[in-house]
Fold:
Amino acid sequence: MLMPRQKTPDLTLPMLSGDSFDLATETSERGTIICFYRGLHCPICANYLKELEKLTPAFAERGVTTIAVSADGLDRAQAMADKIEAETLRFGYDLSLQKAREWGLYISTSRGRTSIGIEEPALFPEPGLFMVTPQQTLYYGSVQTMPFVRPHFSELVGALDFAIKNDYPARGEYAGAV
Structure:
């Protein structure tokens, strides 16, 4: 399990821009939002990523970068970026299932074609949302077993305003005896 205030796993992936994303060398004033999504086959992911695309400038104003990440290959990742009309949200792709597990993501098996007629991969990670500090420690994390009822990005923007104003630390860091 990932622990707040502790180093997260490394994350290096190709991006649709042709560049490489490397969490260890990511430069931002306050951190990086990493949104792991199920893949092109998921209509809920498309709607969720539209919200992140819309709010990426608000995160940037607060010194936070964003990236959407999936285990999809280049073509499917590009199709998702096109579908949500991404302009500011970066897309990383080719997430390995081993790396997904390191991040604590749940893995699902294919159920065939989804409601939008796109075949699910044989295995794919379920959603996760993380904010990682510039020092690559976990500030916020949410992991899900299915695509429903995800954290709202607008609430995260508001929470960031509070955290910045009050120098609010990452919580959930206690790992001692209970």
User: Anything to note?
Assistant: The mean pLDDT is 97. The domain at 29-146 is CATH 3.40.30.10 (Glutaredoxin). Residues 43-61 form the longest helix (19 residues). The beta strands are 12-14, 20-22, 31-36, 64-69, 90-92, 107-109, 123-125, 128-132, 138-143.
